[in-house]
Write a structure and sequence with these properties.
about 350 residues
């Protein structure tokens, strides 16, 4: 019995549906424009935008000079919106606004145009050009209708779209960092900070920026390493001024600064050590001396000790009194600057004593 009732119900639904389709198809083929107009409005009110849209599409041509044309076109645009055809809806709402700027529906049409663009804008991880266009259109509406109650919604949409662009900008910078393109990462992080000063985690981003600068220096050719290591220092000082020493990211920043100083110290030693290995002791002494007191270098005591040591080796190798005298002078300068309790003081005094003995 239940099976028979179910079958009858299905047949009844199919019959009614076919009848409705048949009735609608007849209406489409009909030349009765007034009936089409009435039925189009009825379908529209029932939110059957597909059927209403087809009828309005025909009526747009037939009612071209009719006073109801504006109304039909306005509803037609809404049918596109109701069917999810956002690009077409945006186009028709914009066309309505430009065609009928004095219409009482002009403001609503322009709003719907920009709202469709907002809905159509891509997620943050895709091409942001549509998002920027949507923001421009929202701003246009705000400028044209500053007193409109819709401005509040437009501002809300603007904030959301700006958030998408901000997120994309930040993720692009992080991607460059992940790809080890540190120069591009530095530029991208700086642009993000400049373009979006409202960033909530700005301290974390600036700490990451300092890390990028250190990694850029570390991975640079020797001729560019020194300056790039030095560029870390002002960035660290700026971070300290902005966020203080108790900032949760400061330990990372402090560690990066220490590593950059260590990198500079290593570079200051490398050239002189290479000359020592080649037996060019006098040249090594000059190299170590030149590195002393350069910005960012912190191992001046070690460098001065190496100056003393290199001059003594030069004097011993060349049997040259001038180099021995240089050893004595540089050793005296060491004691005067760093005192007798320095790590290298005993070795320095030893070389001085040997130089004095060699001269005597």
């Amino acid at each position: 019995m239940r099976s028979k009732l179910s079958l009858i119900s299905i047949l009844l639904v199919l019959t009614l549906g076919l009848g409705a389709c048949s009735s609608y198809n007849k209406l489409l083929k009909s030349n009765d424009l007034e009936k089409k107009y009435t039925e189009a409005l009825a379908y529209y009110k029932k939110k059957d935008y597909d059927k209403a849209g087809q009828l309005f599409d025909e009526l747009l041509v037939a009612f071209k000079g009719d006073e109801r044309f504006q109304e039909i076109y306005f509803y037609y645009a809404y049918c596109k919106y109701g069917n999810g055809e956002l690009i077409m809806a945006s186009y028709h709402f914009k066309n309505f606004y430009e065609s009928f700027p004095t219409s009482e529906k002009a403001e609503e049409a322009l709003y719907m145009h920009v709202y469709c663009d907002y809905l159509e804008s891509y997620p943050h991880y895709l091409d942001p050009s549509v998002t920027r266009m949507a923001m421009d259109n929202l701003q246009l509406f705000i400028n044209l209708y500053p007193a409109s109650p819709r401005v509040a919604d437009c501002n809300k949409y603007m904030d959301e779209l700006r958030g998408r662009l901000r997120k994309k900008s930040l993720e692009s910078a992080k991607l460059y960092l992940k790809m080890q393109d540190y120069q591009a990462a530095i530029l991208a992080f700086n642009n993000t900070i400049k373009d979006y000063p409202e960033l909530e985690n700005k301290d974390e981003i600036e700490a990451t920026l300092i890390r990028c600068q250190y990694l850029l220096a570390q991975n640079s050719v020797d001729s560019k390493k020194v300056q790039r290591y030095r560029d870390v220092k002002p960035m660290v000082e700026d971070f300290q001024r902005r966020y203080g020493l108790d900032n949760k990211h400061y330990p990372l920043v402090k560690d990066i600064y220490a590593k950059s100083v260590e990198g500079l110290n290593t570079l200051a030693l490398e050239g002189g050590y290479a000359q020592l290995d080649r037996g060019q002791y006098a040249k090594a002494a000059v190299s170590f001396k030149e590195q002393r007191n350069k910005e960012g270098v912190s191992n001046n005591d070690q460098l001065q000790y190496l100056v003393v040591r290199s001059y003594f080796k030069a004097g011993k190798t060349k049997k040259n009194a001038t180099y021995y005298q240089n050893t004595i002078d540089e050793a005296s300068a060491f004691i005067a600057e760093f005192g007798e309790d320095n790590t290298y003081s005993k070795k320095v005094k030893k070389y001085k004593k040997k130089a004095e003995k060699a001269l005597n």
